[in-house]
Amino acid sequence: MSERRRTWRVAGIAAVAATALLAAGCAGSSGANSSSSSSGAIVKDAVATLGNLSGATADCIFQLEGTQCYSVTNFEDFMYLMVRPLYMFGGNSSTSIAVNYPLSPANAPVYSNGGKTVVINLKGWKWSDGESVDAKDLIFDLNLLEAEKVNYAAYTPGLLPDNITSYSATGADQVTLNLKQAYSSIWFTYNQLAILTPFPLAWDVTHAGAAAGSGGCTTDSAADGWARCKAVWTFLNAQNKDTATYATNPLWQVVDGPWKLTSYNINGNYMFAPNPKYSGSPKPSIAELKFQAYTSDTAVYTALRTGALSTGGAQTNGTDVPSTDLPPAGKGFLPPTNPLASAGYTLQAAYEFATGFAYINYNNPTYGPVFRQLYFRQALMELDNQTGMSTAVGRGYWYPTPAGVPPEPVSPWVSSAMTENHGQGPYAYDPAKAEALLASHGWQKVGGVLTCETAGTGAADCGAGIAKGTQAKFAMLYTSGISIQADMVDVLKSGFGLAGIQLTPAAETFNTLLNYTTPCTPSESRCKWTFLYLGGWGFDGPGFEPTGEPLYQTGVPNNSGSYSDPTMDSLINATHTSDSLAVFHQYANYTATQVPVLWMPWATGTQAVSVNLHHVTQNPLSMFYPEFWTCSSKTC
């Protein structure tokens, strides 16, 4: 299970009562598909244009790929428009973080046998080529996952498919899973079944022009070593890399979602048209969904000021109104005045169900031993002025991240340690305390640079593996083209500098930074990075309950910094089998006190929406539903 990485971005208004959220989670009910504004007469041939940030745009179209493809821009803002996963979450709602069965191609799973048997009934939707979305398509996905799980970013060793003893089609539209043990039904639905996507038989091929299903993966088995599925995946992987053919390759024209791709380039300019065979509801009323690329968030804002866009962005990648271009936040994280009113926009605010952080590289050959010292990570947090960033750079639109669980919107998953120090967690910004802590473990400023002066493993020493004379000189890789990220890293650099820690900012495009996300070993040349700041992590699928297996469990693909702690592993595993909030809170508190990553602020963002574009809501789970949108002008 895994959630998607993202660079800095925001969603829309989201505030949900804890009791309501818990009820929604337990019942698996869908969120209300509410409208953000009322519409006038609907124009059927309208075009909606969205801002897209170059360097953080979609560059993958096949779901079963590795971490290089694992971002909101590739999944929620691109693939999900065309091919729906087994279960959709949220909805066109500014509050819901629950599974949304009405928008999914399958009905609610049925658990029996003490939670060890799961029956999935598909609804009989149609692919755009006329074939049914049925049990064969889900078996195709499960077989492909069995064959190539190590190449799938959502795979966690020991979890799906490893935790299934058997699966089979028990009806034309029914698949039954037999599990190795009983699991929490909430967790298994939200974080296991959510990684599944029925694939069309048109994809079960090994070469262009082959007949649908001729690849044989749908009927393959472990007894054959999954040879046929491996051949199919190899072909699909090659087609996924051929970005120039995304809009013309017949494979990717077979969809069950509400949209079909009509044009595409790697720079971030692409267009979608409605899929006339879409079985779900509502059907799109907009004739064309156009993504327009810009080089920076500032360029997007300039386009908004001229009225060139329908909205600042999808659910993604920094293309909304930068907080630096807004007056300080007022009530409800909205600006007291609308600077884009004269250009024909309303403004929407939102929490996102996400955490902000920078990865720490525990396998860095020089600094890995430093980062493995808990006292050092605690000191880093006491030099990490999240509140100052939120005020000085975020202008009141941001809030601190205290732990590995989203603090907003309000949810039952928020634990006691997360609320300490007014939401900063157990290690509030306190440079004097940080300096004293470092000094008590053998660190001193030498020539203005924090240096280990007392090597060793004693209580007053620097710690195991840290040589005398080691200097705290780090670099922070972060996303280029997003001005607020650069400003935030500068604030962090200043805070670190108070203790003599040197931090060098280094900007790269989001897509380039994804190349560092695969865990590395100390001997690799690419393992020399110290901090990797992509923005954060949204619990937007395919893991929607904010448990820690994708990020903090030992050895998982998205544990980019190679963090490892047996206690953390044990606490994470306990959340898989228990519905108890007390069990979950033990995990959440541990992430707050152990600092597995460097916590950074997350934002309520501000999105501009044209007065001619209606029913636009920002879901906290980053789900993007333009099929709900309507336009009252031909260019909305």
Structural class from helices and strands? alpha+beta
- Report how far apart the termini are: 38 Å
Name the beta content range: 15-25%
Number of helical elements: 15
Q: Tell me, what's the shape? A: globular
Task: State mean pLDDT (0 to 100 scale).
Answer: 89
User: From the alpha-carbon coordinates, what is the Rg to the nearest angstrom?
Assistant: 24 Å
Number of beta strands: 24
Parts with pLDDT < 50 across at least 5 consecutive residues? 1-40, 314-319
Report on the biggest sheet.
6 strands, mixed
Helix content: 10-25%
Question: Quick recap of the structure?
Answer:
This protein is of the alpha+beta class. It contains 15 helices and 24 strands.
Structure description:
With 636 residues, the chain is of the alpha+beta class. The chain has helices spanning 18-27, 75-82, 135-148, 185-191, 227-241, 297-305, 368-371, 374-382, 386-393, 420-423, 431-439, 483-497, 510-513, 566-577, 581-594, and strands at 4-6, 47-53, 88-89, 99-100, 110-112, 117-121, 164-171, 174-179, 259-264, 270-274, 288-294, 345-350, 354-360, 398-399, 443-446, 449-452, 473-479, 502-508, 531-538, 598-600, 602-603, 605-610, 613-614, 630-631. The protein contains 15 helices and 24 strands. The strands form eight sheets. Strands 1, 13, 17, 18, 19 and 20 form a six-stranded mixed β-sheet that branches. The model is unreliable at 1-40 and 314-319 (pLDDT under 50). Helices cover 22% and strands 18% of the residues. The radius of gyration is 24 Å and the shape is globular.
